[in-house]
Structure formats: structure tokens, C-alpha cells
Design a protein that fits this description.
The structure is a homodimer of 311-residue chains. Chain A is an alpha/beta fold and 311 residues long. Chain A has helices at residues 10-21, 33-53, 59-64, 72-76, 90-103, 120-123, 157-169, 186-202, 208-223, 228-234, 240-255, 266-279, 285-310; strands at residues 2-6, 25-29, 66-69, 81-84, 109-112, 132-137, 146-151, 173-176. In chain A, strand 6 and strand 7 form a beta hairpin. The first copy, chain A, is globular, with a radius of gyration of 22 Å. Chains A and B meet through strand 8, helix 8, helix 9, helix 10 and helix 11 of A and strand 8, helix 8, helix 9, helix 10 and helix 11 of B. Chains A, B: This is 3-hydroxyacyl-CoA dehydrogenase.
Amino acid sequence: MKIAVIGAGLIGQAWALVFARAGCEVRLWDGDAAALARSRVLVGELAAELAGSGLVRNAGELVARVATCARLEDALGGVDYVQENLPEVLALKREIFARMDAIAPAAAVLASSTSSIPASAFTEELAGRARCLVAHPVNPPYLIPVVEVCGAPWTGSDTIDRCQALMLAIGQKPVHVRKELEGFILNRLQGALLREAFRLVEQGYVDADGLDTTVRDGLGLRWSFIGPFETIDLNAPGGLADYCGRYGGLYQSIAKEQTSTEPWSPELVARLHAERRALLPAEALGERRTWRDRRLMALALHKQAAGKETT
Amino acid sequence: MKIAVIGAGLIGQAWALVFARAGCEVRLWDGDAAALARSRVLVGELAAELAGSGLVRNAGELVARVATCARLEDALGGVDYVQENLPEVLALKREIFARMDAIAPAAAVLASSTSSIPASAFTEELAGRARCLVAHPVNPPYLIPVVEVCGAPWTGSDTIDRCQALMLAIGQKPVHVRKELEGFILNRLQGALLREAFRLVEQGYVDADGLDTTVRDGLGLRWSFIGPFETIDLNAPGGLADYCGRYGGLYQSIAKEQTSTEPWSPELVARLHAERRALLPAEALGERRTWRDRRLMALALHKQAAGKETT
């Protein structure tokens, strides 16, 4: 497969790595020549780091599959699939999709990494709008495999199918979002939980560290290998319906206290930020992000091994 | 430390294992003599299984630290801490706490495993009410370490401190819930996320399997070793406050669509149940629960190892 990655920032680099790791031939394009030159070096560094942990077999071969192209025409020529990663600005998306649709082979799928703009907002006028969709990754996609696949109303079902098949083939986990909606699935679930988390701290029931402990040493453990529906399906003798019969009343009663749509107040945000800084000084944020990514790598390897052993 | 475990069902057995694994001397009591006799055998089987995975060192020594007592007086004599696990019936909690308060040494802490009844509902009239509280585990506590510690308004701060210190000493992760509230912290967070999950399926955006994939291959990964607050703190250059500045508007906009407090409809529950049964037949539920517990064991070992390597 030949893949064009459009936009060579952090997300573009990560996609280049994901596609090249799976054996695809990748062409990376960016309007900024210096950023483009730098990006290939950064993909190499990333690949070497992943090779050290065992998540990439041969970093040199991987990087050899990534070419940079100064001209968009060169990047798009003969490709099967395009993954776009420009900044989250509607005008930029409109412009680049118009160019991509004019240049790329008619059979190529055109996907955007956007997390906040629906495909319908930048593809309606295009001749090839049926081949356009959103394939929203989670950062960084080489460690977090889920990809939210969401078309506009005019996206062809074959486009959805081909995008999902490609994602599966390269080791990602596509989730089909059947209609456009703000935040897709992942951020809506995150938002629902965060909203209650902020409220519980604001009302004095728990501090930020206690809340994080509740998730990392409790709620988050099962969710890291079975989702919320399978979790409740296994948590009552008769499965999901039995669980809903037993605990639906409790959750409905709780729900009545979870309806505030007030924005998080500046005081609350400042208080939580101060608590975080007491736990982790600002100057240690970068180091902690590196630690987080090492933990994500270790977790990815663990899940690979555990999946083989126990399914 | 001498510990009494009152009620020898699944949760009582699990607590006996957790305390004995940490070297405590455990006395297990149950009003049902047959259940009591069976429970010690089951603790032994559980310990042997955990020993096989490396989460218990010496199953024989562990079980030797668990004694069963036919009389409540024998179980409570000379203990430092009592963990109660009777059925979730207020009258039963009231009766057993009155008996425990009358019999147990004055210095012993009296904790209930209840997930749904606040300590204030069954301790108000007791002479020793200051030493009573809830220590709510997640099932099974030998694999999921979080324990929600929540007192009544009259619970002594030393009682809270001693309970938390004991939980830390035996390898659990206590979270102090500072005021009584329905569902404590964990189930309120779970409820908030489930509510949006049910809604997203009901409105046709995603199916149950896609939603589970979004969590198990996306949202749940970071949450299994850092909580939701640390996750957002690391997800913007300037930390949590920066994150709220960037994405608070998105979450507030989404929140306005997440306010329904309608119960999950029978049709929706039936549809989700049917989808789960298509993925996992009813007769395979038991086997899958065993698989889940093996995965939790493997995850616990992974987290122990990763914690040593990377912190």
C-alpha cells in the first residue's frame, strides 16, 4: 500500500510511523520545508525508541519506507490512501481537501485526522466527496490503537469499509461512528466522566489525587482490556440485562445529581491545577510525559502478550 | 495485626485472602456454619490460584493464618480491626454493628464493606460510633486494590486515619471520601460514563462493541495507570489549567447534550443485551469471567513490574 501523510507535525509523524511500521510505503508532505526535513529525523528517533522497547522490529527498515515530498503532487501520485493532519482550522481543511481531491488518484481514500471538525464541513462541494471521511486517532497512535472512523452523510459505505480494513491491517482498532457528532465517542465519554470528577472535587467529596487513585487502581483496570459494556455484562450472573435490573435504579438516582452544565469555574480549575502542581511541579511535566509514554509502551507489550496467552 | 472478617461470602473470602496475604492473623465468622466451613476451603483454592500467577508467595502459609470461628465472640476477641460483609440489608447492618460494638475491643476499628448504605444509617445509636466507618472494596479486592473509605459525620478522624494506614500496609489503595454520598466515587464515575455510553448506542452513533473498543483500546489505557486528572494534566503543554482553557469549551458544549436522567429503556437494555449475547453466549459468561480474572492478575503483575522500572 502507498500512503500519503499530509502535514508533518506530531500527528503526521506518528501516522507515518504507524503506516511504515506495518510495511506501507509512506510519502510525507508539509508546506513548511524545514518542518518536513525535521519530521523524517523525528520519525527515525521515534522508531529507534520503539525498537528499544520491542514495539518496532527494525527501525532502519521502517524509516527507509518513509519518503518526504516537497510537492503535494509527488506525495499524492499513485497513492491508495491519504491521511491529512493540518491544523484544526476549517479554511485549511477546505483548501487542502480541494487540492487533494483534484490531485489524488480517483480510487484513493481521503481521510482527515481532525478531532473537532466534521467531514461534512469541508467536503460537501468536492467532486470526490464520497471518498472523504474522518479517521480520528488518539495521540500517540503508535501506542493507542483506537481510530474513530466517521463519514459525512455523503461518504460512501465502501470508503468507510476500506478505511476500517486498512486500519485493521496496520494494527489499529477502528471504531465506526455512524453519524457525525461533536467530540465523536472517546471525548464524549471522557467528558462525561470528567464532568462528574470536577463536580465531586468542587463539592468537597474527594481530592484530585483520590479521584485519580479511584480510576487507576480501580475503575480503569478492567476498562483497559474490556470496555464498559463487557464490564457490566460480566458483573451480574445473568449478564448485562441482569446488571441493569440490579443497578439501573442506583445509576438513575445518581444521574439526577449529574445534570449541571455549568462551565468549570476558574476557581475550581485553579484549585485542581494547584493540587496537580503540588504533586508534579511544572518543570517535571515533560519528564512525566516521557514516563507516561514508556508506561504506554510497556502496557501495549503486556496487552499483546496477555492477549496471546489468554484468548 | 489481628483482623475479624464478618460474613464469609465472596467478599468476606476475598478480604480474608487480602489480609492474610499481607501477614495478618484473620478470624472469619459467619452465622451459617456450612458456609463458614466452605469459605476456608474456597480461600485456600483462591490462594493457590493466585500463587500460580505469582501474586501470592506461599498459599499454604496464607491459609494457615485464616481461622474460622463459630461464635462471634471468638472472632472479635482481641482484634485490631473488623471488616463486615453481610448482605446489603439495613436491618442486618444495624444488628451486626450493635453486636460488634458491644463485643469488640474498644480500640478496634469497625468497618463495613457496604457499597450502598452509608455508615450513618447503621451506627448513629452506637456507643462506639466514632470507630465505625465504611471501607468499600471493589470486587475482587485481591486484584483491584482501591478501597473507598467513608465515615459518618461522627466518625473519628483517627478512625479514618487508622483504616487508611491499614489499607496501605496491606497493599490496598485507600481513597478518602470526605462526605457520605450515594455510590461513593467509583460508581458515580462509572455511572456518568455509562449514561453517555447508553445514550450514544440508543441514538445510533455506535454499537456496544465499538464503544467497548473505544475504551479498551483508547480511553482506558492511560486511566489504568494514571487517573483522569493526571491524564489531562499531561495532555496540554501548560498542564491541567492549560488543558481546561483549550478544551473546556468543547466539554461544556457536549455537556449540554448529556443531561437526560431518563432510566435506560427496556428496549435499549434488551438491544444491548442481545448484542452482548451475540458476542458472548450466555453459557460462556462463566468462562469469560475466569478469563477476565486471569487478565486482571496479569495486569496486576505488569503494573507491579512497570512501577518498579519506571518511577
